[in-house]
Design a protein that fits this description.
alpha/beta, five-stranded parallel beta sheet, 16 strands
């Protein structure tokens, strides 16, 4: 049952309108002046009907107080002698509508219904956004992650193209989604296309769509990813896997802002922010002539590097606890021993964050004890036991390995440098 605050200095108005609203199933509280209404605002209301002229103040000023106390409240202004300037001022301050007296009950009920329905939609949209923010959050407090989040914050608001680089499993798509959610396009669609997962003969139709009869089996027209992402963000994941022919057509779209479906002669404007991601060395691919240099320039306006998990080992513990909580099943462990966290933090994680998440999911399912121990992790993941003695950063580990190779070679040749 929706609750409504009705504020008007006419007793007959309070009685007739209030009674009609109660008859329609609303819970109504009335006030004849600003002071009484202010006291009522200590409680929560779904909607408020405010007269513009009140004996001790302005209903338009009261509107601002209602919006401040209850931002989601649907406010409808009512007046028998208001001017256009009053309606404009009320709308600017957040009024949903402005109705003139004498009120039409039918119009009032329709206005309230529309406002409350919009309120429900806004709440659902907020709930979904909060759910998305939790689902696609980038977790960690390391310097590497702090710098990454700072870069995302700086870049998100603009429509500049971004090239996200990083190893497999580091969370490049999470970065793309954060760029979208923090941008002015957040209410628009986020569309992701994995360029490496599609056969070469399907990439163009996926990107640009196709018309009816464009090829055998095209019984109906279908929009491509660019059209699907209109007004939002398009992530081209693994963009380095695009064939050269598709690269040329992608470049044209980036330059002209229009797409043409396969089999169609009509150009269609698209308003899309492009974010690309890759784990490949695109500069080397340019030198090898397997990636277009002009396309790289177009995509790489702002590069963002996603750090490998081994370069932010201080985040491993928090991530492990988070993933364990997500994976925890009824009766399964939701705790992990400090020694197990220390073991995980010393591991290099070649599969990065994705590998850690998979480990925690498997550990949650296959561990019977209430707490996951270091010994239990070693039994489930022998690679942790093999890596247990490894210390130092990744670069230090590489340097140590190279040193061992050199020493073995010198030992075999009696420390004769020319022979080694």
């Amino acid at each position: 049952m929706a609750t409504i605050l009705l504020v008007d200095d006419e007793p007959n108005m309070l009685k007739s309108v209030g009674g009609a609203l109660q008859h329609e199933g609303y819970k109504v509280e009335t006030a004849a002046d600003v002071a009484t209404a202010r006291d009522a605002l200590k409680r929560t209301f779904d909607a408020a009907l405010l007269d513009v002229w009140l004996p001790d103040g302005s209903g338009i000023d009261l509107l601002a107080e209602v919006r401040a106390a209850h931002p989601e409240c649907v406010v409808v202004m009512i007046s028998g002698h208001a001017e256009l300037s009053d309606a404009v001022s009320a709308t600017r301050r957040g009024a949903f509508d402005f109705l003139e007296k004498p009120l039409s009950l039918e119009k009032l009920l329709l206005t309230l219904q529309n406002g409350l329905e919009m309120q429900v939609l806004r709440r659902e949209q907020l709930r979904r956004r909060q759910s998305e923010e939790e689902r696609y959050a980038i977790l960690g407090t390391s310097r590497a992650i702090t710098d990454l989040l700072g870069m995302i914050e700086r870049v998100a608001e603009s429509d500049v193209r971004v090239l996200i680089r990083g190893e497999n499993g580091t969370g490049k798509e999470l970065v793309a989604r954060q760029l979208h959610m923090r941008s002015g396009r957040s209410n628009g669609p986020f569309v992701a296309l994995n360029c490496a997962a599609l056969p070469e003969n399907l990439i163009e139709s996926e990107l640009f769509g196709f018309g009816k009869g464009a090829f055998t089996g095209a019984s109906r027209a279908q929009e491509g990813k660019f059209e699907e992402a209109h007004g939002g963000t398009l992530l081209l994941d693994e963009v380095g896997d695009l064939p050269l022919a598709a690269q040329a057509k992608l470049l044209r779209v980036l330059e002209e802002g229009t797409v043409r479906r396969l089999g169609s002669k009509r150009e269609q404007h698209v308003d899309v922010r492009i974010v690309a991601a890759t784990n490949r060395d695109l500069e080397q691919m340019v030198r090898d002539r397997s990636f277009r240099e002009d396309l790289l320039f177009r995509l790489n306006v702002v590069p963002i590097e996603v750090p490998a998990l081994r370069d932010r080992s201080e985040d491993v513990g928090a991530l492990a606890i988070h993933f364990l909580g997500q994976a925890g099943l009824h009766g399964r462990p939701r705790q992990i021993a400090p020694s197990a966290l220390k073991l995980l933090s010393s591991y290099r994680f070649p599969g990065n964050v994705r590998e850690l998440r998979n480990m925690m999911e498997r550990a949650a399912i296959l561990t019977d004890a209430q707490e996951i121990s270091a010994a239990g992790l070693k039994r489930l993941f022998p690679e942790l036991a093999r890596d247990d003695s490894v210390v130092g950063s990744y670069s230090e580990q590489i340097e140590a390995s190279e040193r061992d190779i050199v020493i073995r070679a010198l030992t075999a040749t009696g420390w004769n440098v020319s022979r080694s």
